[in-house]
Amino acid sequence: MAIEVRIPTILRTYTDGAKQVEGSGSTLAELFTDLEQRHGGLRERLVDNGGDLRRFVNVYLNDEDVRFLSGLDTPVKDGDTVTVLPAVAGGAF
Amino acid sequence: MLTISRSLYDKIVAHARADHPDEACGVIAGPAGSDRPERFIAMMNAERSPTFYRFDSAEQFHLWREMDDNDEEPVVIYHSHTATEAYPSRTDISYASEPQAHYVLVSTREEDTTEFRSYRITDGVVTEEPVSVVE
Lengths: 93, 135
Known about the structure:
By secondary structure, chain A is α+β, with helices and mostly antiparallel strands. In chain A, about 15% of the residues lie in helices and about 25% in strands.
């Protein structure tokens, strides 16, 4: 068993086109560090230099936005599904 | 080129007018790979702002999962500008993340005419495309 991670179209360049990949870790931060071993460059698209989740990336644990849980410190376990979606946003300026 | 039915075109314009002066936003889904916009979904603007829009994250999650289950994709992603022209702004370009989508911009700055324009936004490059409205 592992944690299943669903990857959006725009980030599949880091996963050889795969829609979903698997990883392990006890928190989201550990999971992203683990994924980086096999999918170099992916972590930087999710986590900013300050170690926080990037503002315009939505990450969901099962069907909950992790911003409403504990962000990157959110505990994860085998059998969970993590979904990454780029926020759809913009504005006049 | 974006080919869109008159009724979907009218729905986008009606949504933009209804939410004016706040920005309105939404999706028209279609079968994956078909380039045919078919299913209209008005989204909440979580920012409720005249100068910014952002899909509500929970609503986006459910819609994206639904599209996945239906083998659909976001063929059109639309939003309105309410005081400026219907051209992608710097923020629109930097957050554009669906390279296969037609980004439709509607401007409601004039009361009696609505600008309706479509773009591809790929790797920060904006390409305007013609819009063909079919009955």
